[in-house]
Amino acid sequence: MTDTLPPCPDCGSAYTYEVGALLNCPECGHEWSAETAQDAGTDVRDSVGNLLADGDTVTVIKDLKLKGTSSVIKVGTKVRGIRIVEGDHDIDCRIPGIGQIGLKSQFVKKVSD
């Protein structure tokens, strides 16, 4: 039955189980509702918890080395017009001087417009 249950949103454990209307994680002890689990898949949040959406502007909060090159995306780099996508790198964007790239939301902070 664990094949149909979503992984834990806190630690990512696949060993979740159901108790009544709640889902539980045996590894970290997190409890959440099944309705929250369905909605949580579409939410992408930045490093401080702000909800991100397509078209937002974000800044990079840490120097990021690009694999296979000697290039670095410097802290404070402003990225405009992001697009939210599925996957490990959940932000698709274009960085001037570098080009099209995928970023992880944990390394960006939303800029208030």
From TrEMBL:
Key word Hydrolase present: yes
Highest taxon of the source?
Bacteria
Q: Where is the Protein YjdM N-terminal domain?
A: 4-33
The UniProt entry, under InterPro entries, shows:
YjdM, YjdM_C, YjdM_N
Q: Which Pfam families match?
A: YjdM (PF03831), Zn_Ribbon_YjdM (PF08274)
User: What Gene Ontology terms describe what this protein does at the molecular function level?
Assistant: hydrolase activity
Residues in Protein YjdM C-terminal domain copies: 44-111
Keyword set for this entry? Hydrolase
**Family, per entry:** Belongs to the YjdM family.
**Name by which UniProt lists this protein:** Phosphonoacetate hydrolase
- Species of origin reads Gemmobacter megaterium
